[in-house]
Amino acid sequence: MRWLVLLEPRGEMTTASLVAVATTARSARSAGAELHALWTDGDAEDVGSHLRGLGIATLHAVPADQIPPFSHEAWLPLLTELVKNLEIELIVGPASALGQSWLAALAARLDAELAQNCIALGVAAQGTPLVRKPFYAGKLLADLRLDRRPALVTLRPASFQIERNGDALPAIAYHTMINPNDLRSSIKEMVNVSASISELADARIVVSGGRGMGGADHWAVLRELCQVLGAGLGASRAAVDAGWIHHAHQVGQTGKVVTPNLYIACGISGAVQHLAGMRSAHKVVAINKDPTAEIFQHCDYGIVGDLFEVVPMLIQELKAQRPHAA
Ligand SMILES: Cc1cc2nc3c(=O)[nH]c(=O)nc-3n(C[C@H](O)[C@H](O)[C@H](O)COP(=O)(O)OP(=O)(O)OC[C@H]3O[C@@H](n4cnc5c(N)ncnc54)[C@H](O)[C@@H]3O)c2cc1C
Asked: Which ligand 1 atom is nearest residue 214's CA?
């Protein structure tokens, strides 16, 4: 039995990919499955070193000059061939925007079963994959058994320890992709709407602002806190809908799901749809001037106060403790 993990082609190993591969490796050990990984973004030696001790038999890779960025058309034929030739029974990817769209395209091509946005992967009898998937903004957790082969799963990044077993590196097998000149479409340019967005899903610390920010011109204080902490900037939907910040920063049911070590919610009431995007954070700090705000039921540390007084004090204290951080 063989399983395969897709690594996001983002130039380097992302936390989302590493968590997907480590979670799958643990289940592959109990299922007795041989684990493979696919990397389509250049230097496979470097990525291979991130996979040491995770029990990956082979890292399949494509040379950098053969990879048109983010092109389903280019990598789908290669992946379909790999799945068929190696008789892969389970394909896992990170539940990022890229991972979800890639696996959806692959599921359509293979006419296969797909479970998106799962939070856990386990194994039933005969190595059958079991996944846990949240519904209704996390109010319901369903355990699903994926009986058909191949099965496809995307896993949300969660904060947990990566368990390595020794130092063994995967073997690397290079493949050839479709000739880029044969593609019918290509991406000419990638524009980042904000420098901090791409890091949000991977950030170890996230600072988010809500309607309590009070306007589009008041975010400098949160941006400064982000800078001091090396944090990603998030937002509630109320702040996004008001046009104060780009949608790409939105955390929640209809935004990004983040799983940082520390989440600081500023002027956010704690609606269930917002909690759906940050409830797996390891520690949550809430700053809100209303002592009855729902967010205080879901945080580890609550500060009742005006964020425009509390956050500058935090920044001042952090700068005093870490004078080189600013
Ligand atoms: C289908 C659906 C999907 C949704 N998806 C999302 C989603 O993905 N993400 C999301 O966030 N929401 C989502 N929502 C919206 C959600 O229901 C809430 O309306 C939204 O989260 C509220 O945002 P908020 O907490 O910033 O605003 P509010 O609920 O208005 O809370 C503002 C808070 O700021 C506090 N405050 C005000 N001024 C200050 C100050 N100076 N200092 C400190 N505190 C202050 C107030 O006491 C209040 O608690 C969705 C809703 C629906 C119906």
From this structure: 38
The number of the ligand 1 atom at minimal distance from the alpha carbon of 270 is: 25
Domain boundaries, the chain: 2-182, 197-321
CATH class of the structural domain 2-182: alpha beta
pLDDT tens column, 131-187: 999 888 777 899 999 999 999 999 987 655 678 888 899 999 988 776 667 778 777
> Which residues, 6 or more positions from 126, have their beta carbon under 8 angstroms from its beta carbon?
none
Ligand 1 interacting residues, C-beta cut-off 6 A? 210-212, 236-239, 250, 252-255, 267-269, 271, 273-274, 277, 287-290, 293, 306-308
Residue 163, Cβ neighbours under 10 Å: how many? 12
- CA dihedral of 304, 310, 315, 319, whole degrees rounded to 10: -80
pTM of the model: 0.75
Q: Please state which of the four CATH numbers 3.40.50.1220, 2.60.200.30, 3.30.1490.20, 3.40.50.720 is assigned to the domain occupying 197-321.
A: 3.40.50.1220
